[in-house]
Predict the 3D structure of the following.
Amino acid sequence: AQKVTQAQTEISVVEKEDVTLDCVYETRDTTYYLFWYKQPPSGELVFLIRRNSFDEQNEISGRYSWNFQKSTSSFNFTITASQVVDSAVYFCALSESTNAGNMLTFGGGTRLMVKP
Amino acid sequence: DTGVSQDPRHKITKRGQNVTFRCDPISEHNRLYWYRQTLGQGPEFLTYFQNEAQLEKSRLLSDRFSAERPKGSFSTLEIQRTEQGDSAMYLCASSPRSGQGGLETQYFGPGTRLLVL
């Protein structure tokens, strides 16, 4: 069965610090997809990134970067020079290719608080 | 292109009452998903539709829950005889049909927050 673990329930940093959010997953499939979503206080889940299991190339988008390592089943998310607006709950999610509906399995989320 | 919309955004009801939520997906997205999120937890899958067909239901979806997508556009989620344990955020998401060899991203609505007293 698929499972996603986000061991950090809450992280607090001061603005401009770098912060890494950890995500570890379990799956028996060789083909799967990993996601990160952001949930601000308004409640809406905002899509950030999607990765398939065959693409281990790290990605950078502005202040955001993602490190995907199949060897450790991890898909970590780093925010560089954090800002107050980054304060939110961040979710890592997994979808297996054998799952016909492509439904997502989410981790428990990491609440990030960025203080001015 | 407007995003996924959900109505109402908030609902307070008394135990035993029936409630119905609506979701309007992004136009031309043929897949629609319902998730439930309780406080401090990640969303959990409830059910999904491809066009008007309900193709998968989670064991979380008890007999008191029913979902429909009659014309393959908007969807409704009804909870009958609500219980306090039904209090949660109900999230709807939509995605286009998966392309060959791929998977399409799910885009979420703002959710309906239900409180059962």
Summary: The two ends of chain A are 41 Å apart (CA to CA). The longest strand of chain A covers residues 88-96. Chain A has a mean pLDDT of 93.
